[in-house]
Design goal:
By secondary structure, the chain is mainly alpha-helical. 79% of the residues lie in helices and 0% in strands. The protein starts with a helix and ends with a helix.
Length: 117
């Protein structure tokens, strides 16, 4: 079971890397007012959602303690990120504030995962 959990943690990290990487590649364009949500950001967020749900299930099946408040907050942030990216995915230009919000929420999600023990 531990190997399976570690596999999904790795996939979860790949998802967050795709989301954050997509954001970081658009930083220069954001400064020029031409940033857009690239497809990798949506795919990364969806990967995070699926692997996160699987990880919660696997950890519960393995009788590990689950911090439901932490998971709930991370899920809420991810749903907001997914909503913004999904709705605005076809637009050529995204407002700087909205684009920055996605980056901020993504970064907050990372720090919650790492620092909240």
């Amino acid at each position: 079971m531990d190997v399976l959990i570690h596999l999904f943690v790795g996939l979860h990290i790949i998802g967050i890397a795709a989301l954050l990487g997509g954001f970081l590649t658009q930083m220069k364009a954001m400064g020029q007012g031409a940033a857009r949500f690239v497809p990798g950001m949506l795919h990364g967020a969806l990967t995070m959602l699926v692997t996160g749900v699987v990880l919660v299930g696997l950890n519960q099946a393995d009788h590990h303690h689950i911090n439901t408040i932490k998971i709930g907050i991370k899920l809420a942030l991810l749903i907001v990120i997914l909503g913004l990216v999904y709705v605005k995915r076809d637009e050529e230009k995204i407002d700087k504030g909205m684009f920055g919000l996605v980056g901020l929420l993504t970064t907050a999600n990372i720090f919650i995962a790492v620092l909240w023990t």
